[in-house]
Amino acid sequence: MRKLIIILVMLLIAATAYNQSSRRTTNNRTATTTDTQTATRSNNESVSRTRNNTSANRSSNEVRNSNQTRSNRTSTATSRNNNSDRSEFVTNNNSNGGQNTNSNTQRNITTTRTARTTNNRAQSSYTARTTNSSNHTSVRANHTVYQSPRTYTQRHAVSHYYRRAPEPREYRAVHYAYRAPVHVDVIWTPVIHNHYIRIYPFVTHWNISYGYHIRTISAYDTDYYRGDFMNVYGRVTEVFYSHSTDEYFLYFGPYYPYHDFTVVIPGYIARHFSRRPERYFTRQHIVVTGLITEFNGKPEIVVRESFQLRLY
To answer: What are phi and psi of 217, to 5 degrees?
Structure first.
């Protein structure tokens, strides 16, 4: 009996050991299978990713290549068109005998020519002088530029300041021309001759014949007619009064000291027009008749009689 019991116990022990070993092998097998499955899954995912990347790269490369081919086609087409235009232009020039060079150069030449003509016209309008006629002599009084007979010879304070210098006289004369008077007709007669001999005693000889119509010019042009007897018209920009000498100074053009022309009026004559000459003459259009003299490089006319000055 003991032997049987021992044999049964040994058989049970062997059975339990076999069961445990079989379980271990099954567990190992399942673990290996799961590992292999996960590995295969990761490999499949990496393969799919690489496939997607390669397809995307292929598509981007195809797009780039298509764009490059299109740009190359367009560049070749434009170059062909340019070459064809050049060849046509050359053939046209050869057919015309080489007279025309290029449309752009022709346009530039025409614009420069028009600019030159306009500038020449503007300059000629300012440099033109009166010519001698058969009946009347020159307007000049002894062909001499006289200094102004004004009493006040000092400089005064500047009331208006410019950040930069104003436009040149020639530019303003074209773009900001003064309104010309309608009826200005001064004829040189013996009576007027005697009046101006008294007004300008420093002029020894008047080379103006009787019956001559005194010429009317703008205040812009007075710089070219110093020493001439003229009618000058324009608009007063600023008025200065000297208390020491009782004189009014009417400035034309920009503000002092950039003015173009000056009219000097004694106080007793200015007050014939208004009790407040400074307000009265400011921004007014006037015509003054007299001898154009010079003071500090600026042309001016000194008025001695009321009939020399008129508003229009």
So the answer is: -130, 165
CA 58 to chain centre: 55
| Domain locations along the chain | 1-100, 131-152+169-311
Cβ neighbourhood burial of 253 (10 Å; 0-12, 13-18, 19+)? buried
CA distances from 262 to 136, 203, 265, 278, 292 (A): 28, 20, 10, 14, 10
DSSP string, 25-44: HHHHHHHHHHHHHHHHHHHH
| CATH-assigned architecture of domain 131-152+169-311 | Beta Barrel (2.40)
151: DSSP letter: S
User: What whole-number distance in Å separates Cα of residue 261 and Cα of residue 167?
Assistant: 15
As a whole number of angstroms, the distance between CA 292 and CA 140 comes to 10
The H or E element containing residue 97 is none
User: How confident is the prediction along the chain (312 residues), in pLDDT tens digits per residue?
Assistant: 777 788 888 888 877 776 666 666 555 565 455 555 555 565 556 545 656 555 555 655 565 655 565 655 655 555 454 444 444 443 444 444 444 445 555 555 555 555 455 445 544 444 444 343 333 334 444 468 999 999 999 999 999 999 999 999 999 999 999 999 998 999 999 999 999 999 999 998 888 999 999 999 999 999 999 999 999 999 999 999 999 999 999 999 999 999 999 999 999 999 999 999 999 999 999 999 999 999 999 999 999 999 999 999
